[in-house]
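User: Predict the full complex structure for these chains.
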Amino acid sequence: MNLARRVFLKATGLFLLSLGLKPSGGVLAKNESPNFLANPQALKGRRWAMAIDLKKCKPDCQDCIIACHWAHNVPSMGNPKDEIKWIWREPLAKAFPGQGLESVNSPWANKPVIVLCNHCANPPCVRVCPTQATFQREDGVVMMDYHRCIGCRFCVAGCPFGARSMNYRDPRPFIKKINPNFPTRTKGVVEKCNFCVERLAEGLLPACVVACPEKAIIFGDLKDPQSEISQILRARFPIRRRPELGTQPQVYYLT
Amino acid sequence: MLEKAFHGSRSYWFLITLLLLGIVIGFFFYLKQLDYGLGITGMSRDVTWGLYIAQFTFLVGVAASAVMVVLPYYLHNYKVFGRITILGEFLAVSAVIMCLSFVLVDLGQPARAFNVLLYPTPSSILFWDMVVLSGYLLLNIIIGWTVLGAEKKMVTPPKWVKPLIYLSIPWAISIHTVTAFIYAGLPGRSFWLTAIMAPRFLGSAFASGPALLILFCLILRKYTRFDPGKEAIQALAKIVTYALIASIFFVAMEIFTVFYSQIPEHKQHFIFLFAGLEEHRFLVPWMWSAVFLAALALLILLYPPFRQKENLLATACAAVFSSLWIEKGLGLVIPGFIPNPLEKVTEYHPTGPEIAITIGVWALGLLILSILYKIAITVKQELES
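Assistant: Here is the predicted structure of the two-chain assembly.
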């Protein structure tokens, strides 16, 4: 076949153009049916929030941590360098820095409190992420897309609470017992607490809330004035971590 | 013009081989990093950026500094820089390529790097940094290549290149401003949360870049028949002097604000840098070396008879370059993470593979630079003979 150069170029050009047109093909035929069916029992909220009762939380109890880390396949890396954690304990003076608790020898200073992602209403991690791999849902939960994350760790630098962990190596060999109901992660992506969205979708409260033997963790919809969390935040004196930064944490501590 | 890179002296080929060796070694360790993950580096949960991002930040400055030769030459018709403008532009090209490579080797999932383009996110400074850096790379390749090509054919450069040259001037400022914004806009990282960050970046950039350019000029004059001209080198030396003073001034302003206000959260990072926190003093010797080198350089540069002696000038330029490499490299990135938001100090020490990869990227940049300089110098020499 003797194809003229001109014809060949035309055909190539048309072919390349058609590749570019392909995505707009969606307007011709649209599938109206939803991709998945929501569980009718799913818990619905307009602004999920958490309150942690510092009076009830027992210093030597780790039930919430164990429950969360098992539910979400959080590995035990065995060294602080590669450590991955979603919820953990910190001395109160470290979780609330700059309060001067140490200087008055307050017995509260060393009391361990549990810390986790604050699911800020104005999250800096979402703002800085270059791929929207970390994003905020309409109900306020700050989420991670582990398949989109490029592992630049800008969100880790952006988080003023140290809530984010990077998978510095393959985490799977370090998961003691894999929970088949939740995905494991790959090396090179960032992860953190997800407010148990996978449990909310099935009508269950977060794993840490359920696991707490003291009922020290309260979870609910802040936009619903009748919810337990709204009521307890009105009744008690709630504080938040580093409120001066304007990130508006949605995890409250009851003093 | 590319063919000019394939004919060179023995020392040229020795240099090329050496740099290729550096790239191969670096690439070997990069493959290891790909396999194991970023855990192969000294970075940790608390110190999540290290040597790679430190090099990236510093090299953006080197790239931006090309404007210090472009601006006097094209805007003020300062003819003395005519011979070295191309050197500045090609230095920018290789520096930007190094920057982009350092970001790439720092990614946990490099195969997904193009997600930044696939899901453009204007709220992210990193997205903008990618935009301005790639734009600056293109601008300098196009301008440098076109102007050199025209020079080779002994014609005036095409008209369309002039607007691009003018555009490249504010663009150079933008790459370093945007890079500063990566740091300066993060709540809770008090070391970086300062409005002086971008000016400070530009100050140190305009000192370290031209200092490196002077060193290259001196090396080229010694090992090739290319002479950038004494006047051009001295003019660059003046630029380095002013920029170094500005740079020191900006750091001093930072130190005043932090220590006069006495806000512990802001103070602790500087105390960590210059005195150490608890028993952690691993950056202290580096920082004091930077201070000493800057002081030495200032001493030489401020006194004209010293500055005019080219041996002393070379010493001063090496001192400026090393001092600012520390100050705007590890000395800028690491203390942002130390202490961490929970007031914990985590040590950071680069590992062997991390250093090998870093050297590999530098070798890649220097290889590109050697080839580009070789082309530029051969073209200029052929014209003269």
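The interface with chain A takes residues 36-39, 43-46, 48-49, 103, 106-110, 112-113, 115-116, 118-119, 121, 123-127, 130, 182, 185-189, 264-265, 336-337, 340-344, 346 of chain B (CB under 8 Å).
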